[in-house]
Amino acid sequence: MCGICGLLQLDGSSFAAEPFLREMTAVQKHRGPDDEGYFCASGVGLGFCRLAIQDLTPAGHQPMSNEDGKVWLVFNGEVYNFRELVPVLEQAGHKFRSRSDSEVIIHAYEQWGKDCLAHFNGMFAFAIWDSRKRSIFIARDRLGVKPLYYWSDGSHFAFSSELKALLALPQVPRQLSMQALQSYLMYEYVPAPESIFADIQKLPAGHFLEVQLDGSAQGCHTLGWRPQPYWEVRFQEQARRSVDEYVEELKMLLKAAVARRLISDVPLGVFLSGGIDSSSVVALMSEVGTERPKTFSIGFEEKTFNELDYAQVVARHFDTDHHVEILRPDVYDLLQTVANFLDEPFADASALPTYLVSHTTRQHVTVALGGDAGDELFAGYDWYRAQKLASLSLDNLPDGIRQYVCALASHIPPSAQKKGFCNIIRRFLDGAGLPPQLQHLRWQTFWRSDELEQLLVHPPFQHFSSLDPRLLKLLAMSGSTRPLDQQQYVDIKRYLPDDILFKVDRMSMAVSLETRGPFLDYTLVEFAANLPPALRLRGITGKYLLKRAMQDMLPQQILHRRKLGFNIPYKNWLRHELRDLLQDALAPMRLKQQGIFHAPYVQSLVHEHLSGRQDHAHKLWQLLMFQLWAERYLSASPVSLLRNEIDSRAVNL
């Protein structure tokens, strides 16, 4: 795992790239503390910092070139099937000098051009400088496991693994995108291709971009650089087979996906929550691996937020080398640490336990497998069941009665438990009153249009009743008219890369830990998308086929346990441990000076939550995380995290 960056002068003229590359690399050093390197030529510069996983010798150093130095690569991630590609490329005449997957990417590009992407099974973000074409080719893996940001002003082009590296460039403005801010408030994250800054973009998952140094670009248009897709998932059910046939294929695919992710020259382990996804990874790792699995779990003192009992069951069942830590963190310090690594506003509170389990795991291993994407592939989230239940219980009621029942949500008192009965009913009724095509989207949002109008000094142009038209477009792109297919497609294309994978990448790389997700293998994704919906969600029971496939391997109490999720008691922390920080971050004078949020409305939310009259935890957590981000990154001057002040020398890129 690594951090990459690059600069281009689009007219091809020479410039002093290395000082800027060093600044960009320095702020990503946590992604790759083992090595760094630079390549500079006329009009182009590449930078790299390395977390050594494959081929620990100097032969794995980057930037890496082909034999004649005409093609150069910087690469973040892993190509799991690289050993299978080596003999294919050798037969075509390519010579290898290392045992790294990086060199495979170079030769695959030489052999197949941009079509090389179809040959890779892995997680990656890479850039290839082709001096023969005077172009740079950048690409991101199919599911968006590894990040890639880019910026251009028409004369220069820059890219990096993390947004903060682009902010190290004096030319990059810090203009807040109000559209991205609205997206953040609605979803708790900023979805691709936007970033929180108006002039910086994310390369979407499953896309590539090719830029010429003469100023032209493949797909260039008046609004910027247009990425091109190279992979898509379609929910199109194939010819029906028996359940047993589906079970056998799933077991085969999942076992192969786990085996691919055990290739490593450094120690590895597994995040074990005790849920069916991570437990399945442990089970299959025990079967295909050659060593006793190392498993890692964390817990909290609050019982409703603790899954350790289930994790212990799995660890004992498979005799793993199990490591457990009961966390009593200094909440204030933990939140500040996590905020330092979030260079975009991000309000999924599970980032905190993800950081903690990554920190614990990194003390023992360099690579960790996890169960991410199992919920998206096999319909494990509550909202899939909620919409199914709504379709069975409420959608056929007359509009007046349905709206009356749903209005009861505002009268249900909040619960201190993470998933108390009252909280579940409130959330269900809050979205069930919408038209069926909007219910799934509402389940993932936390502000109504009237609330946003009260919150924002400059209210959004879009009203909640229409939601985000881009998400509605995604629903139509699924290739299916069935509600479950559409919901899962949206989550695979949006929620998975921009929330779940963003969180795991930033929090694991903060401690220089590589994470690998077997459920993210694109062969599994395509398999799940072609399943009959009833094999994903049977009645209101999710993950039906996965449970069938694992029923002879996992303990019964794991197969049939209720999903809890990976979270923290932040609604309680806001009233106690973080009370002073919350009141300071959202102080009226600070908000008035900032000019983004209406202070009186925010204060009403704070008072109602602290008094216990209402549960505004989601809203206040979003506002708090935005404020912590803003004080670090929104300033027009370079922030302290970027290795003090950037040299004020005036150098054109």
TrEMBL record:
Source taxon at top rank: Bacteria
Pathway: Amino-acid biosynthesis; L-asparagine biosynthesis; L-asparagine from L-aspartate (L-Gln route): step 1/1
A GO CC term assigned to this protein in UniProt: cytosol
Keyword Amino-acid biosynthesis on entry: yes
Residues involved in ATP binding: I298
GO MF term list: asparagine synthase (glutamine-hydrolyzing) activity; ATP binding
Record key words, sorted: Amino-acid biosynthesis, Asparagine biosynthesis, ATP-binding, Glutamine amidotransferase, Nucleotide-binding
Binding site for L-glutamine: D101
A biological process from GO: asparagine biosynthetic process
Reactions it catalyzes: L-aspartate + L-glutamine + ATP + H2O = L-asparagine + L-glutamate + AMP + diphosphate + H(+)
Residue ranges of domain Glutamine amidotransferase type-2 in the record: 2-214
Xref: InterPro entries: Asn_synth_AEB, Asn_synthase, ASN_synthetase/amidase, AsnB_N, GATase_2_dom, Ntn_hydrolases_N, Rossmann-like_a/b/a_fold
Pfam families: Asn_synthase (PF00733), GATase_7 (PF13537)
Residues annotated as site: Important for beta-aspartyl-AMP intermediate formation: D372
Location of the active site: C2
Xref: CDD domains: Asn_synthase_B_C, AsnB
SUPFAM superfamilies, A to Z: Adenine nucleotide alpha hydrolases-like, N-terminal nucleophile aminohydrolases (Ntn hydrolases)
UniProt-listed Enzyme Commission number(s): 6.3.5.4
Sequence similarity: Belongs to the asparagine synthetase family.
Name of protein: asparagine synthase (glutamine-hydrolyzing)
